[in-house]
Design brief:
Blueprint lengths: L1 H4 L6 H12 L3 E4 L8 E4 L2 H6 L1 H9 L1 H19 L10 H13 L6 H59 L4 H75 L5 H16 L8 H20 L3 H21 L4 H20 L3 H21 L4 H20 L3 H21 L4 H20 L3 H21 L4 H20 L3 H21 L4 H20 L3 H21 L4 H20 L3 H21 L4 H21 L2 H19 L6 H16 L13
Antiparallel strand pairs: 1-2
Helix pairs in contact: 5-7, 6-7, 7-8, 8-9, 8-10, 9-10, 10-11, 11-12, 12-13, 12-14, 13-14, 14-15, 14-16, 15-16, 16-17, 17-18, 18-19, 18-20, 19-20, 20-21, 20-22, 21-22, 22-23, 22-24, 23-24, 24-25, 24-26, 25-26
């Protein structure tokens, strides 16, 4: 925006045009368009492909666009450095920029024009200094040669005088002969001095020529180095934006990792004097890409270390200019990535504090630019992140408050442009989170309405682009959410149909990229959902097959990364599901062995984070099942041990903050009473993901 507004003093027309194009979704803006620090860009690459006239304009002067882009970046870096002369153009870069500027003089901003003027002045001064030095050297050598010639001439004149006196003084023949001999010697010496002076002058000219050649070679080397760096920078930008954005949706994490690693190697090898703010930002983006791949592969601790490096870079850039909205936005997104890993590791309080920092930045940016839709979307995402942690901590009402904030923003964005997939995705996320709380609160029909709306959104988006893996996964999750509510409502066949839709999508994604642990987990949990319905339909053997497939997947994922608490919990619930079916088949000892695996994991997770209500609930349910199964095996020792399991479950339930606390307590007490009367007990509500 600063470039557009600096072209004229009258900015009203430019602002109106930009606003109209933004309202038509042809441009996206960040910041207030009436301010020079706003940012304007084309809304989507497809616009360039689908707008023939715009493409024609670009094709006509593609190299000019590249020259202008590099000039803008160089001018900005020069201004940010405090107008350090080291950032000015020189040599071929200056010549190319001046040639372009001569035919586009009206398109230069004030800063760019000043940058070119100062670059030209510096270039002229350097050339003048080099020429003056060469001329001084040549003059000095020429003066030495002239002095030698002068001495030779004087000696020659002296010799001629001696000869005249010799002829005049015939009687002094001996003296004349002596003088003649002397004059010959002096004349020869003078000739020798003259030859030396000429040689010295020739050497001086050769030195000047060599100096000029070296100067031209240095300029050529500098040009080649600058050209190579510019090409490398252009390639890095392409790798971190265009290529990265194409690899993510199709799930090619292996290629994305290689791309990010190559970019990082290049940036790490740059000399310190070449590490500009733009290149620091590139390094931050590179670290985020590496962390994203490591997260998807389940390597959480490595991902956290990489994300924290990126966070440190974003903090340093923000500290340099706290008014730069782009840097603040990047800073907030780095907090989000760190928080995501902390959640996966089960460190909820640390994650909450991290997300709250993200939320603080997002709120400030949104208040500064209330018309910027991109910043509003970031704010909505921040509310969702905070709500997720609060929900996991059992603070359902607080979580619902955060989700409602996000939902309100998403609705306002969607109403502005219903065709925008980003706003549709934001509405989908907010609806899903609200639905999860409604399910926990027992408001099933309200939750189903929210989930059905999500399903319609994702069907539309997936039909729009069949190659987008993210949209396919969201469609699978929408079917899963609908199936969960239908199952809770007792509509088992409808629920099973929904879960099988989820399973088919999850399986196709897993085949596409077997290294993606997120898709592997989805596939495992889809098997779990199918198994749960089959159990309720009495198809125990089919259910056991589905549960065992999930168990194998969760074992592999846990082996990849022992620090991933989410994977550990999934594994615990997988053992629990297998144990449930074995118990229903009367295989009590095998069921008890499976429940012991669940108990060991549940106890470890609860000790790790006592604020995680989901883990507390898992432990309570597992203690109930251990007690119930042990009692069914029979024998005095087993009955006593069963009672101990149930009493421990009651102790844990005392501090459990979830809404189903009383239900769990009642189930545990009833089990204790029935053990005393040797009557089979009724299972409490099982855990959910």
């Amino acid at each position: 925006m600063q470039e557009l507004l600096s072209l004229s003093d009258e900015t009203t027309a430019e602002e109106q045009i930009i606003q109209k194009l933004a309202d038509a979704s042809l441009l996206t803006t960040e910041g207030d368009v009436t301010r020079k620090d706003a940012f304007v860009e084309v809304a989507h690459e497809a616009l360039i492909r689908s707008w023939p006239q715009l493409r024609k304009w670009i094709d006509v002067d593609r190299s000019g666009f590249r020259t202008r882009t590099r000039l803008t970046e160089a001018s900005s870096d020069w201004e940010n450095s405090g107008c350090d002369a080291a950032y000015l153009y020189a040599g071929a870069r200056l010549a190319v920029a001046q040639e372009w500027a001569s035919s586009h003089s009206g398109e230069l901003s004030t800063g760019e024009a000043e940058f070119l003027r100062r670059s030209a002045a510096a270039q002229k001064e350097r050339e003048a200094n080099e020429l003056e030095a060469a001329q001084r050297l040549a003059r000095a050598e020429a003066e030495r040669a002239q002095e030698a010639e002068k001495r030779a001439q004087e000696q020659k004149q002296a010799s001629s005088g001696l000869r005249r006196r010799a002829f005049a003084a015939v009687g002094a023949a001996v003296v004349a002969l002596v003088l003649l001999a002397v004059s010959i010697v002096m004349w020869r010496a003078a000739r020798r001095q003259a030859r030396i002076a000429i040689a010295q002058r020739t050497a001086a000219e050769e030195q000047a020529a060599i100096a000029n050649t070296q100067r031209l070679a240095a300029q050529s080397s500098e040009k080649n180095a600058n050209d190579a760096r510019e090409q490398a920078d252009g390639l890095i930008n392409f790798m971190l934006t265009d290529l990265s954005n194409k690899l993510r949706p199709i799930g090619r994490l292996d290629l994305l990792y290689d791309v990010a690693l190559s970019a990082k190697k290049y940036l790490d090898g740059l000399p310190k004097e070449l590490v500009t703010a733009a290149r620091l930002r590139q390094e931050g983006v590179t670290l985020n890409d590496l962390g994203d791949v490591l997260t998807a592969q389940g390597k959480l601790q490595k991902a956290l270390e990489v994300y924290e490096q990126g966070l440190a870079i974003k903090k340093s850039l923000t500290d340099q200019d706290k008014s730069d909205q782009g840097r603040l936005r990047d800073f907030a997104l780095s907090f989000e990535r760190v928080g995501d890993v902390l959640v996966a590791q089960g460190k909820l309080q640390e994650a909450l504090e991290t997300y709250e920092q993200q939320l603080t930045i997002a709120q400030r940016l949104s208040e500064q630019s209330p018309s910027n839709n991109g910043l509003k979307q970031n704010l909505a995402d921040s509310y969702i992140n905070v709500g997720d942690v609060l929900r996991k901590q059992g603070k359902l009402q607080d979580a619902m408050g955060a989700y409602q904030q996000s939902l309100a923003i998403a609705k306002s964005l969607t109403e502005r442009d219903k065709s925008n997939p980003h706003w549709q995705r934001e509405l989908w996320l907010s609806n899903q989170r609200v639905g999860e709380v409604l399910v926990r609160q027992g408001k099933l029909q309200e939750a189903l309405d929210a989930y059905q709306q999500n399903l319609d959104i994702q069907r539309t988006l997936t039909d729009r682009d069949k190659t987008n893996a993210d949209w396919e996964r969201n469609l699978a999750l929408s079917y899963e959410d609908v199936g969960d509510v239908l199952s809770a409502q007792g509509k088992l066949q409808e629920a099973l149909d929904a879960f099988r839709q989820t399973l088919a999508i999850a399986q196709s994604l897993t085949i596409r990229d077997k290294s993606n642990s997120v898709w592997q987990r989805d596939f495992g949990l889809s098997n779990q959902r199918v198994g749960e319905v089959l159990v309720r339909q009495g198809k125990l053997e089919e259910a056991l097959d589905a549960y065992r497939q999930n168990l194998e997947i969760q074992r592999r994922l846990t082996d990849r990364d022992k620090t991933n608490a989410g994977s550990e919990r999934d594994l615990a619930l997988s053992y629990e599901n297998v144990g449930d079916v074995l118990s229903a088949q009367g295989k009590l000892q095998e069921a008890l062995d499976a429940f012991r695996q669940t108990l060991a994991i549940a106890q470890r997770l609860t000790v790790q984070d006592k604020s995680n209500s989901d883990w507390q609930r898992d432990l309570i349910v597992c203690l109930f099942k251990m007690g119930d199964t042990t009692a069914k095996i029979g024998g005095n020792d087993n009955v006593n041990q069963a009672q101990e399991f149930l009493r421990t479950g009651l102790q844990v339930a005392d501090g459990y903050p979830g809404p189903e606390r009383q239900q769990l307590v009642d189930s545990l007490n009833l089990a204790l009473q029935k053990i005393a009367h040797q009557v089979p007990s009724v299972s409490p509500t099982t855990g959910t993901n």
